[in-house]
Design brief:
Blueprint lengths: L1 H12 L3 E4 L9 E5 L6 H6 L6 E6 H4 L5 H6 L3 E3 L6 H12 L3 E4 L17 H9 L3 E7 L7 H6 L5 E4 L12 H25 L1
Parallel strand pairs: 1-7, 2-5, 2-6, 3-4, 3-5
Antiparallel strand pairs: 6-7
Length: 200
C-alpha cells in the first residue's frame, strides 16, 4: 500500500519523469548511489524501483515524528552525521549480506547548488568489502535545499535517470584504490547529469 501511495504521489503530484529506468539486478545485493538534492530523494528513487531500497539517511530526518513510522516501514537506516556511525555501517552490511539493495548518497549531505559535492570513500569501501555491485542515479528538480516537510507539501518538476553497473578496481582497500573507485562513481553520476541536460 505504501509503495502504491508513493508511486501516485511522486508521479501525479510531483510530476516525476524517468529518463532511464533502473538497472538493478532482480535478486542479490546491490548499492544504489545518487546525488542528494532534498529530503524527498529516497521517495522519488524508490518509486522507480520494484525492489525495496534500504536507505541510509540522516538521523534528524529519520526522527521526524510524523514520518518516522514510514521510515521504519521501509527499514531505513538512521545515520549520525557528527562522526563515524559504526552501528549504521554494520546495519548496511547486514542488509547487503541478506541480498538487499542499499541506497546511499555519497555526498553525505544535501547539495545547495547544481554542482556535485565531493563523494566520500565509504561507499567504495562498503562495495569492495561486501562485493556488492554499485549502480548510479541522477536526480534533478526536487526541492533543492528544502526541509523534508515543506518539500513534501510543494509540488516539483523532477527528473531521474539510472545508469549501468559501475566497474572499478576491487583488488584491495588501500587509499589509492578507494579514491579511484570513488572518482569513477562520481564520474558515472556526472555522466547521467550531462545526458539529462542534453535532453532538455
Amino acid at each position: 500500500m505504501l509503495g502504491w501511495t508513493n508511486l501516485v504521489w511522486t508521479r501525479l503530484y510531483h510530476h516525476l519523469k524517468v529518463d532511464r529506468r533502473p538497472c538493478l539486478p532482480t535478486v542479490g545485493p546491490a548499492i544504489l548511489i545518487c546525488n542528494h538534492t532534498s529530503g524527498l530523494d529516497p521517495m522519488f528513487l524508490q518509486s522507480c524501483c520494484s525492489r525495496l531500497i534500504i536507505w541510509m539517511m540522516a538521523r534528524e530526518y529519520y526522527e521526524i515524528r510524523a514520518l518516522k513510522w514510514a521510515f521504519r516501514t521501509i527499514e531505513a537506516i538512521p545515520v549520525d552525521r557528527n562522526g563515524r556511525d559504526f552501528a549504521a555501517t554494520r546495519a548496511a552490511f547486514r542488509a547487503l549480506e541478506q541480498g538487499r539493495v542499499v541506497g546511499i548518497f555519497p555526498e553525505g549531505r544535501i547539495e545547495t547548488t547544481k554542482e556535485l559535492l565531493p563523494f566520500h570513500t565509504g561507499v567504495a569501501l562498503m562495495a569492495i568489502k561486501s562485493k556488492a555491485p554499485v549502480f548510479p542515479a541522477f536526480l534533478d528538480g526536487s526541492q533543492r535545499n528544502k526541509e523534508m516537510v515543506s518539500a513534501l507539501l510543494r509540488p516539483n518538476q523532477a527528473r531521474v535517470s539510472f545508469g549501468p553497473e559501475i566497474i572499478f578496481d576491487r583488488s584491495d582497500i588501500s587509499r589509492p584504490v578507494l579514491e579511484a573507485a570513488t572518482a569513477k562513481m562520481r564520474d558515472a553520476v556526472n555522466m547521467l547529469a550531462a545526458e539529462m541536460k542534453a535532453r532538455i
